[in-house]
Each structure stands twice: as C-alpha cells, then as structure tokens.
Amino acid sequence: MLKIENLVFERDGKKVLDGVSFHIQKGEKVVLLGLNGSGKTSLLKILNGLYFTNSGDFCFEGEIVTKKSFTKQFETAFRQKCSLLFQNYEAMFFCKNIYEDIAFSPSRFGLLDVKERVFHAANMLGLENRLDEFAFTLSGGEKQRAALACIFALSPDLLLLDEPTSALDPYWTARLVEILEASNGCSVTATHNLSLAAELGERAIVMRDGKIVFDGKTAEFLNDKALMANAGLLHSHKHHHDGELHEHLHAHDWN
Ligand SMILES: Nc1ncnc2c1ncn2[C@@H]1O[C@H](COP(=O)(O)OP(=O)(O)OP(=O)(O)O)[C@@H](O)[C@H]1O
Ligand SMILES: [Mg+2]
C-alpha cells in the first residue's frame, strides 16, 4: 500500500526526518511512538501530502507522490484514500455546524451518499444528536470525536491518526480501539499512550531525533527495557515504591 525510502525532511536547517524508510502492507495497523519532537507529526503530514520532503521516495498504491504529482485530480483520489486526523484537531473545523464539517470532504470529493456517511460517522462517535451545533461549542473530547467523524466519513483505505485519544475519556478511548480493531483498513497512529500502543497496532515504528530506532512487534518493543531506553521512553526519577524511596528506569503508564 505504501512505501517510503530514505526520506529526508529539513526545516530551518535542521533534519526533522533523517533517512526514514519503511513499507506498509494493506490491512496493517502501525503505531508510531517517540518523544516530543522526534518527527511523528511531520512524518504523518508527509504521508498525507501536506509536506513534501527534500529527498527520498514516497509511493502510495503504486503511484509516486511528489509535489509535482499533486494535481487537483490526484489530490482528490489521494485524499479520499488517505486521511489524517490532526494532532491539533481543532484546525479541522471551519463550517457553521458539525454536520457540515463532517460532510465537507465527502461532498468535495463528489461522493454520492454524503448524508448516510455523515450519520454513520456521527453515530459511531456518539454525536448523532449534536450535528446542528457549532464545533467550537463542544467539549475537548467531543471536538476530537467530531474530528474523527470527519475522517471516518470518508472510509479511507489508510487512516493517519495523530494522537487520536489525547482528549478522549476512558469510555471513548476504548470505543475508538474497538472501531479500529473492527475495521480491516490500514492505520498509522501516533501516540504517547504506551499502555494503549499494542492495541492500536501490532507493529510499532519508533522514532528518535528524526530516525527510526525500532520497527517490529509492538509487544517486543514494550517488553524490552533496553529498546525502550534507547528510544528515550524510559526515564528515572525518585519515587516511592513499597514505602521506600527508589530511583530506577521506568515508564509512567507502562510497567
Ligand atoms: N513547520 C515547521 N517549521 C519548523 N520546524 C518544524 C516544523 N514542523 C516540525 N518542525 C520541527 O520538527 C521537529 C519534529 O516535530 P514533530 O511535530 O514532527 O514532532 P512529534 O514527534 O510529532 O512531537 P510531539 O510528540 O510533541 O507531537 C520539532 O523539533 C519541530 O520543531
Ligand atoms: Mg506530534
């Protein structure tokens, strides 16, 4: 479905992505892990054709993606198949109500069953009674669910999710995991929630300073302290443990 080879992406003279390569097969679910600033959002934006790299190859469903190939016709076909939930999900609203926000892309891409798509996505995310509201009147987690509905309404082949549970409560976090598990589509999900990582993707791609430091089974990564430490995802500080003050490497939401 997707192949990237040796991507280099520079901003302000700094290599944000430095020689990133991987292939993703149809139906694969991948979780993208790494510290703040490691390059996850930049990579997802490149995969969505919002940023273009300085060098390297990006091939989606057999077609090479470059700034030049991004004609109107290519963009419509590409964006229907590949959708990104922004980390800053509030940037996904610009209509007068949630119905129109969710309907915006399916209408723009000329899909015929726009109404059904909106109601189906809204139902999935528990927003069926909120469709006439202005997105900015929703709570933080409700906004994130509305942003998820915007991309689910397209039923894309490839879902790019940038921290999709950052504002969700435990109920909706579990619902989202169920929704993703039930879909046979492909997803690449960036998260800092290590206790959720294995459920979001059997395969983990782990980044540090713009480079991939691990690409393999999520369970293997999470169970290997040396791999976790190499990615900077374990840390050490003094904390109480069985009544004693300890200091050892640990992850906060993962043991
Ligand atoms: N448009 C830009 N202009 C300048 N620098 C940028 C730009 N986009 C990203 N960067 C830099 O690239 C690095 C990687 O940023 P990115 O947003 O990809 O990280 P991230 O892994 O998603 O981090 P987080 O976990 O905080 O979301 C950061 O140091 C950031 O400042
Ligand atoms: Mg990010």
What does the model show?
This protein starts with a strand and ends in a 5-residue tail after the last strand. The chain has a single domain (31-51, 69-232), classed as 3-Layer(aba) Sandwich (Rossmann fold). A hairpin with a 2-residue loop joins strand 1 and strand 2 (14-24). Helix 3 (98-108) packs across helix 4. The strands form three sheets. A six-stranded mixed beta sheet has the order 6-7-8-3-9-10, with helices on both faces. It has a four-stranded antiparallel beta sheet with strand order 2-1-4-5, covered by helices on one side. It contains nine helices and twelve strands. The protein has helices at 40-47, 72-81, 98-108, 114-124, 140-152, 170-182, 194-200, 218-222, 225-230, and strands at residues 2-11, 14-24, 29-34, 55-60, 63-64, 82-85, 158-162, 186-190, 203-208, 211-217, 235-241, 244-250. 33% of the residues lie in helices and 30% in strands. By secondary structure, the protein is α/β, with parallel strands linked by helices. Magnesium ion binds at residues 40-41, 87, 162.
Write the layout of secondary structure elements.
Blueprint: E1 2-11, E2 14-24, E3 29-34, H1 40-47, E4 55-60, E5 63-64, H2 72-81, E6 82-85, H3 98-108, H4 114-124, H5 140-152, E7 158-162, H6 170-182, E8 186-190, H7 194-200, E9 203-208, E10 211-217, H8 218-222, H9 225-230, E11 235-241, E12 244-250
Helix pairs in contact: 3-4, 3-5, 4-5
This protein binds adenosine-5'-triphosphate and magnesium ion (MG).
Adenosine-5'-triphosphate (ATP) binds next to α1.
